[in-house]
Amino acid sequence: MVTVNLGVLHYVLDHVYGAFVHRTKISPPFFSRGWGGNKLDQLESMIKQLFPEAASQNWPPSLIQPLWRTVWESKNAILREGVFRTPCDEKLIDALPPESHTARVSFLTPKCISPHKMACVVHLAGTGDHTFERRLRLGGPLLKENVATMVLESPFYGERRPRQQYGAKLLCVSDLLLLGRATIEEARSLLYWLEAEAGFGKTGVCGLSMGGVHAAMVGSLHPTPVATLPFLSPHSAVVAFCEGILKHGTAWDALQKDVAQKAAMTLEEVRERMRSVLSLTDVTQFPIPKNPQSVILVAATDDGYIPKHSVLELQKAWPGSEVRWVTGGHVSSFILHNNEFRRAIVDALNRLPWKGS
Length: 357
Known about the structure:
Blueprint: H1 6-22, H2 38-48, E1 67-73, E2 77-85, H3 90-95, E3 102-110, E4 119-124, H4 133-139, E5 147-153, H5 173-197, E6 202-208, H6 210-221, E7 227-231, H7 237-242, H8 252-257, H9 267-278, E8 296-300, H10 308-317, E9 322-326, H11 330-336, H12 338-350
Parallel strand pairs: 4-5, 4-6, 6-7, 8-9
Antiparallel strand pairs: 1-2, 2-3, 3-5
Helix pairs in contact: 2-5, 5-6
């Protein structure tokens, strides 16, 4: 009789998927055009503005005014799509590709219920999530819990993807920082709109993988308690690109060549520079959210992309937050554990008071 270790199978599945996606010639690797030159230096300064000493300087954000159209309407729900100009400051807008200047959201809400008696969660994109559909499927069943779903299309993804970029493989390291910085600004503005303009009684932010890192940052920086739900997420992009499977999909040779120095850098020196640049995405350096009890991290036991220690580092940095473990790897959990993600969303929202109560 052969005993099968399911944990090993899940871990192997991550590596098989990673080998197919990141080690074949089907698409170029991440950062095939290098670091991003002067833009990277400017963005490092912009990212630092998110940290605690400056977190309150741009609050409240400019109130966005999305233009809505109805996609479909049923007896119990309505789906709208909206567009708005990204609320980023002009320096950030100038750094974004023109295709990313207009933000797009999908907004699924229950009907016949006052917003102040409802909650709404903003869902942020994981790596490669170009469309609204997967996140709408995650949030759809929550309508019966009076939880609305707002899905943000990230810069560099979907209709906001620059023409030169193939799929999700960002061309420069600076693009990764720019994507994150703009996503955080847009998500913060959406939360403010949901609270100040739409009047929702509770709000939250969630995301898978890369989207979870961004969700953690948004929840950290929000001036009032929000449900914060990083799913299958590291505490920093350093882990994803320097420790996990994505390191095999990174153009280290292009990064070695794209350094303005007389002496060529070794591979280890290039990787050390990557660690230094991406250390700006370390969520443990961000403020503790206003209500850490409404932070629930869902992590996988056998994740080939995100090691366990990374999840635990964020929990340690945010005392009061909760980690829930699902059995599986990154890919299998992404597919199989949507019910656990939904349960975490409902539980985190239940730990918040209703606004005005």
